[in-house]
Amino acid sequence: MLTRWGVPLFTMGLAIIAVSAELTTFDQPTPAPVWAYLVALLTSATLFARTRWPVPVAVVILALCLGYHLLGYPGQGPAFALVVVVFSIPKAGRLAWSLPVGMAVGPVWSVIPTLPPHPVSWLDWAVLSPMLGMITIAVIGAVVTVSARQTAAEHAAQAAETRAEIARDIHDVLAHTVAAITVQSNLALDAIDDDPEIARSAVRRVRDLARAATPQLRHSLLQLRDDGRPEQPQPTLELIGRVLDDARAAGFQVTEDIEPVRGRLGPVTELTAARIVQEAVTNVVRHSGGGRLTCNISTDEDSLSLEILDDGSRMPGPEGLGIAGMRERAAALGGIVEAGRTSYGYRVHASIPIAPRGAAT
């Protein structure tokens, strides 16, 4: 709002000062000064429309400057507005046409002072300097426009990647929670008549799962809202322990061999590892049809290795969003995810660099 009003008003002030100086120093008769000041006000007032119609505004200003000169007023004080509008023209569209149009305004304007009744030489510095200045301003406007567009494109790409990351987080949390709740609900239904205590325990587990998922979902959804709220802590490797406990509660025999790696990993790597394990274990609980699950986590000199195995006998269907999300998470850090059947069951293996290429931590 300040730029929208401030630029025209500031230009208006400069134009009035310039017209006043020209009329004061000119030693020949001129029409009534009031019309000169009116032209200065009109040229500056057109700048309010410069962002929407910069080329028509430039044409109107040129016409007013021509009339100002032909009426017999000295100099070109009202032409200050042209300097502003030529900066705006490159923003009007593709630079292939907008930049040449903006640069052409200066040479077109330079014709006006060379016309009667007070002609000035083309090579007069009072003509040449403003013309070159307008051309330069048009080029600067093009450079600023290109830079702004590149910055906007980068921000849009960052926003898209952030939203994709949030979507993967929401998918992981919901998929794991819904799968675990489904298992516990079925257990409660099966046991409600024969063993009410087991049913109550399963229902309590459902309640705990919902409570645990709520803050994670709230955190992910708040990230989609740019309301300045403080960011909540991201999940860490501690999430893996809770995920494996959920698998045990679902009736799986879980074997884990987890090497202590905290302190060696950045927060982004920890989050990625935790989410990959969460998604892999969720897939086992939902789809494997087995009863055993093995989770191995280890590191070597420069990478973190994650392995989740099950003894399920079901043939896997087409890869869904879960495995695709795991691959995307690992690839973002320069790692890989391999998933497929083995002679034992189904295996998911991820290798993630401890110092990821190009990843912010």
UniProtKB/TrEMBL annotation:
Residues 163-227 form the Signal transduction histidine kinase subgroup 3 dimerisation and phosphoacceptor domain. InterPro entries: HATPase_C_sf, HATPase_dom, Sensor_HK_TwoCompSys, Sig_transdc_His_kin_sub3_dim/P. Gene3D superfamilies: 1.20.5.1930, Histidine kinase-like ATPase, C-terminal domain. One of its GO terms (cellular component) is membrane. It catalyses: ATP + protein L-histidine = ADP + protein N-phospho-L-histidine. Residues 272-354 form the Histidine kinase/HSP90-like ATPase domain. GO terms for molecular function: ATP binding; phosphorelay sensor kinase activity; protein dimerization activity. It is an enzyme of class 2 (transferase). This is histidine kinase. The lineage of its organism: Bacteria, Bacillati, Actinomycetota, Actinomycetes, Propionibacteriales.
